[in-house]
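hey so i finally got around to running the thing on that chain from the lab meeting. sorry it took forever, my laptop kept dying and i had to restart like 3 times. anyway pasting the input first so we r on the same page abt which one it is
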Amino acid sequence: MGSLRARNENEVTARKENILNAAAELLAAEGNGNITLADISEKTNISRTSMYNYYKTKEEIFLDLMVREYLSWKDELETLFPRKVSRETFCRRLASSLISQSLLIRLFSVRQFQLEKKLGAEKMERFYETVKPFFDTFTAMLDKQFPNTDKAKRDMFKIQFTLYCYSVYPMSHMGGQGTNDDFFGKVPDIKTIYYKGLMLLTSELI
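ok and heres what got predicted. didnt touch it at all, straight out
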């Protein structure tokens, strides 16, 4: 198993990217945050000892993954909403965009309080500062789409949308489970759930 320490900044970046990609693949397979550093070490062929040169805990890896995914989502939103569109189109595009963020949705299942407990306030503050461009883009998107809506209502939508995102993961994994079908009735496809949910949330913006 590889154990040599990266010798320059480019090698450090490449090693960290390798670790992040491995964690992303494991999350896609496992569907939750129960993977371990040992799992990631085995998949990357980087020894546990060497891995500590880059990440001390799996939570640090999850945080960097969230940064990468948030900034990628920012770029996607800028492409999807270059100009004002109808409310229905806005909700359909945002629903499709949310579906495409499968890794970020899985990472939402790793609750914020778990990350804060493991990583501490200082690292979380740096995280929020790093992903701020996403939230700036999201705010600008709302301002463009709903220019005549009170700012307070747009701000409330951002809070509601964030809470909605955190609820998406369990709902998106209900399909095909008999007990859930018994309780909820027939669960529609996830894109329909997202679209209808966003239509309800945006009803306060018109």
